[in-house]
UniProtKB/TrEMBL annotation, chain A:
Pfam families linked to this entry: RabGAP-TBC
Name under which the protein is recorded: TBC1 domain family, member 19
PROSITE patterns named in the record: TBC_RABGAP
UniProt xrefs under PANTHER family: TBC1 DOMAIN FAMILY MEMBER 19
Rab-GAP TBC domain location: 245-450
Classification via InterPro entries: Rab-GAP-TBC_dom, Rab-GAP_TBC_sf, TBC1D19
Organism: Oryzias melastigma (Marine medaka)
Domain of life: Eukaryota
UniProtKB/TrEMBL annotation, chain B:
Region (Disordered) location: 383-423
Location of the protein in the cell: Cytoplasm, Cytoskeleton, Cilium basal body
SUPFAM superfamilies associated with the record: Glutathione synthetase ATP-binding domain-like (SSF56059)
GO molecular function terms listed in the Swiss-Prot or TrEMBL record: ATP binding; tubulin binding; tubulin-glutamic acid ligase activity
Entry keywords, A to Z: ATP-binding, Cell projection, Cilium, Cytoplasm, Cytoskeleton, Ligase, Microtubule, Nucleotide-binding, Signal
GO terms, biological process: microtubule cytoskeleton organization
Recorded family membership: Belongs to the tubulin polyglutamylase family.
InterPro entries reported for this sequence: TTL/TTLL_fam
Designated name of the protein: Tubulin tyrosine ligase-like family, member 1
Ranges of compositional bias, category Low complexity: 399-412
Organism, scientific name: Oryzias melastigma (Marine medaka)
Pfam family, one: TTL
Any Gene Ontology CC annotation: microtubule
Signal peptide: 1-19
């Protein structure tokens, strides 16, 4: 118990450390100073009075939300080495490192091949042009025929399939079943009984917003007309609320609250600065972004060094590039791109759904960035995290194997491994595959449960839904065809039925 | 809010896809439906063939004729005196031009409003400024040349306003331009082929001029319009259906109200036909959103209540316009993208399912409303017959002393309650 106490106080110390020097900190200090002249603040009871004031004016709540956010992000045990926060398992770290090398090599060779420098300053005319065209919905594209995406999801899948834990001899496993799927690493993943407990709010007995009654009054918060959000302004409460789905009129604010994306003046300014950076310099990476889909949010994202923070707990490491002719010389090392994230084919799909929620670019940007550093990064880095893509793939395969063994066996026999089809859905968290309103309902749960697990569950549920047709197919191509169009699916009923109505 | 409503659009270019008419006499015929069309579009022909209907020529016995506008004009002109027989169906009402020409549309709406005023209908109520409360969905509009003097009087009241000129008889954005100075009109009248205004009766050169709304709702800095498909099966009683899968079309160039850009029609006009030639046209998306995506966006950024009210008002405008007999009859059946082709194919499919239930040969006695399952992606916009029977039932109940619900159904006068929805 003493140890626990130490752990807690250590965590507190860490959080305090992180919040110290933040903008919120200086705002709190200023508020505390300014309130001193107020009549209700008495010298005898200074501390309590200031605290009461901060509480009444909502500042305590803001601090609470900030602390909650820090708690949501992965925490490092103070005595553990930094790399363990990134990834505790050595073989995973190695695999990630070698994947990164491949990607960077590909990027560098493209740069050389095409004679396009990794970064260059834009000429003035081009800068003006770009300023004028800002905010347009992506119809402008430079000539991109020479550029190819750095990698496609299926390349990444091959790497995941080849992962092996050197300490685990899979031949020791008695049951043949465990070899059905493509993922061959032993990670801890939850089975249906455990999922039922964890996702109890999704029980068939509970109404879900979006399926059930439009006029359904949500028990957790006040349904106020747009413009005066959930009155409590409490991140934790908003997160709990989101588990049952967000009403369309409140979703934008709820997500911002859950992610603690406050869109203060300094956030707007930060965005404007990034925008200015885009206009002044173009990066090779920009062309890749254009290629995947012109997204000005992504252009800013590429330049945002604040994103580098998340590499503390991301198994990935930002690629380093070197000034021409100085390879290996750390003095001339440059993080490339500035935010350390190389976009791949389909990357913009993480942003696209958010365009339906926010019409202010800086708000959109802020929410996207937060979603990326909390969730999306896990979909394309190799790690043992339960929300990581490896675990999701394994989860998907295990769920399918356990509950639709006939289907799995059949698909395996015709060389249509289910993961080969489901992978592209999961890597994009289903963006681009579902209709927008359904996708947002899915992402409500990602936020509500602070996990990507529901993505794997949905993937399995989709196969379950189309099981009958899939049993008839005789090739991978026909299996793909059966699962080609997900645009009419209603995600919550599928998930609910799969989790709560499946016989086990 | 009214602001949102006005800011989005005033003229909805309703694509009245089809109006079907059956000659009111008895008789049926056994066998497959015989069809003719003079429009060579695959979305039509594929739909006929999939139902195994038989293609025939105009001169033979036909049941179903999908006519182009020209053919309708010829077939139903006063001179030919053509009459449909009882087992024949066409895709436009004979007086369709009342619905499609912009000047006639304006005339009809103005006349409709006056008629309602005369009969003291609550629909025609005006506010303290003399504006219609429920029927103010058309901006100040004049017919040229007929109302030229009236227009000039109005123009001088607000000399800094912008006006949009639209030729009466054209579609797909052709011939439209903006003006903000009287001299521009004079110039136009000089430049057009005849040196004086051509009399309105010839119809060919007449224009309508409307006050231009310069604060449209923008999404991503872009103007957009709505393309909605409405099917009218009968006018009396009025039965109309709206296709749920409408879409919005975006300008590809960012909107600017600045006067120097007035000449850049790409900024203002969104008809696909024009935008195709603009430099920025994107062939994959064609700059479109589905109406449900639009709805999602508006609910997320503006709130559900406002959005519901907006869509309610859109539906209201459609019904009122139909009542005033005011609709555009020439939708483009050309598909610009693969998705578009699929949409139009399904649209025609659902349309045919409603008007020829079970694929039967048309029978003018058939008058029932189609069951829910047969509607595909259409939803009932307004069913006057049903509304009248509900009204009758209400009267009956009130006579027998039962209390009325707080939201009245649409009576024969089409009373619109002040509350948010009239459904």
């Amino acid at each position: 118990i003493m140890e626990d106490g130490t752990d807690v106080s250590l965590s507190i110390a860490q959080i305090v450390q992180r919040l110290r020097g933040s903008h919120l900190h200086s705002q709190l200090e200023r508020q505390a100073k300014d309130c001193l002249h107020r009549p209700e603040i008495k010298l005898e009871s200074l501390k309590e009075d200031v605290r009461s004031f901060l509480r009444a004016s909502g500042w305590e709540k803001r601090l609470q939300n900030a602390v909650y956010r820090e708690l949501q992000l992965p925490q490092c045990h103070p005595t553990a080495p930094a790399e363990h926060l990134k990834e505790p398992l050595a073989y995973m770290r190695k695999a990630q490192a070698s994947w990164e090398k491949r990607v960077l090599k590909s990027l560098n060779s493209m740069s050389t091949e095409l004679g396009v420098p990794l970064a260059r300053m834009r000429p003035a005319g081009e800068q003006k042009d770009l300023t004028n065209k800002w905010n347009e919905m992506g119809t402008d594209e430079p000539d991109l025929s020479r550029f190819r995406p750095v990698y496609a999801p299926k390349d990444f899948l091959e790497v995941l399939i080849s992962l092996r834990n050197p300490n685990h001899d899979s031949s020791e496993d008695m049951t043949v079943k465990s070899h059905w799927g493509l993922i061959q690493v032993p990670l801890n993943i939850r089975d249906i009984p455990q999922l039922r407990q964890a996702y109890s709010e999704l029980n068939l007995n509970n109404g879900q917003l979006g399926i059930d009654d439009h006029a359904h009054v949500h028990p957790a918060a006040c349904m106020c007309p747009h413009g005066s959000v959930v009155v409590e302004q409490d991140s934790a409460a908003a997160q709990q609320y989101s588990r049952r789905g967000c009403p369309t009129g409140l979703r934008s604010d709820l997500w911002a609250l859950i992610l603690n994306s406050t869109n203060q003046p300094q956030d707007v300014m930060h965005y404007e600065q990034l925008k200015a950076g885009v206009i002044q310099h173009d990066l090779l990476v920009d062309y890749l972004i254009y290629k995947v889909s012109s997204s000005l949010v992504l252009l800013c994202f590429s330049r945002d060094t604040a994103v580098l923070e998340h590499f503390k707990y991301n198994s990935a490491t930002p690629p380093k590039s070197y000034v021409h002719g100085k390879v290996g010389n750390e003095e001339f090392a440059v993080l490339y791109p500035p935010n350390g994230v190389i976009p791949f084919h389909g990357f913009s799909m993480y942003v696209a759904p958010l365009c339906f929620l926010y019409n202010e670019p800086s708000k959109l940007y802020s929410v996207f960035r937060e979603m990326y550093i909390r969730y999306f990064f896990r979909l394309h880095s190799i790690s043992s995290s339960p929300s990581g893509i490896v675990a999701l793939c394994l989860q998907f395969e295990r769920l399918l194997q356990a509950h639709l063994p006939q289907l799995f066996y059949h698909l395996r026999q015709i060389e249509a491994q289910p993961l080969r089809i489901a992978f592209k859905w999961m890597v994009r968290a289903f963006s681009g595959y579902l209709s927008t309103d359904q996708l947002l309902l899915l992402w409500d749960r990602i936020l509500g449960y602070d996990s990507l697990e529901v993505v794997a569950v949905l993937a399995a549920a989709v196969f379950a839904f189309r099981a009958e047709n899939l049993m008839e197919v005789t090739s991978l191509a026909s299996a793909e065809a059966v699962l080609a169009d997900l645009s009419t699916l209603k995600v919550m009923p599928l998930i609910q039925i799969f989790l709560f109505a499946t016989a086990i | 809010m009214k602001q949102v409503h006005r800011a989005i659009f005033i003229f909805i270019f309703l694509n009245l896809l089809t109006c079907f008419v059956l000659h009111p006499e008895g008789g049926t015929m056994a066998g497959k439906v015989k069809w003719v069309t003079d429009i060579e579009k695959s979305v039509l022909i594929n739909n006929f063939e999939k139902r195994e209907w038989v293609q025939v020529t105009e001169s033979e016995d036909w049941n179903f004729y999908w006519m182009s506008i020209q053919t309708i004009r010829n077939v139903f002109s006063v001179d030919t005196g053509y009459r449909l027989s009882d087992d024949q169906m066409v895709n436009h009402f004979p007086n369709h031009y009342e619905l499609t020409r912009k000047d006639l549309m304006i005339k009809n709406i103005k006349r409709y409003r006056k008629d309602l005023e005369k009969e003291s209908s609550p629909l025609a109520e005006k506010d303290e400024n003399g504006k219609y409360i429920y029927l103010d969905f058309v901006p100040v509009t004049f017919m040229l040349p007929a109302d030229y003097n009236l227009f000039v009087e109005e123009f001088r009241k607000n000399p800094s306003s912008t006006w949009i000129m639209k030729p009466c008889g054209k579609a797909q954005g052709k011939g439209i331009f903006l003006i903000n100075k009287l001299s521009q009109i004079k110039k136009w009248s000089r430049d057009s082929r005849t040196s004086t205004f051509v009399a309105a009766s010839s119809g060919k050169e007449a224009y309508v001029i409307s006050l231009y709304i310069d604060n449209p709702l923008l999404i991503g800095g872009k103007k957009f319009d709505l393309r909605l498909y409405v099917l009218v099966t009968t006018y009396r009683p009025l039965k109309c259906y709206m296709y749920k899968l409408g879409f919005c079309r975006f300008c590809t160039v960012k909107y600017t109200p600045s006067t120097s850009e007035l000449d850049n029609m790409f900024v203002h006009l969104t008809n696909v036909a024009i935008q195709k030639h603009g430099d920025d046209y994107n062939h994959v998306h064609g700059g479109k959103w589905t109406v449900s995506n639009l709805r999602l966006y508006l609910e997320s950024t503006r709130g559900k209540e406002v959005t519901n009210r907006l869509f309610d008002q859109i539906h209201w405008i459609v019904v009122q316009s139909l009542k005033a007999v005011a609709v555009n009859a020439s939708p483009s059946l050309t598909s610009s993208t693969a998705n578009d082709r699929i949409l139009k194919y399904n649209l025609i499919n659902d349309t045919l399912n409603i008007v020829t239930p079970n694929g039967d040969i048309p029978d003018c006695r058939w008058n029932r409303s189609p069951p829910r399952e047969a509607m595909g992606n259409y939803q009932v916009l307004y069913d006057e017959e049903q509304a009248q029977s509900e009204n009758a039932e209400r009267d009956l109940r009130s006579r027998s002393g039962q209390s009325l619900g707080s939201k009245g159904s649409k009576g024969s006068a089409g009373v619109r309650p002040a509350a948010a929805t009239w459904k």
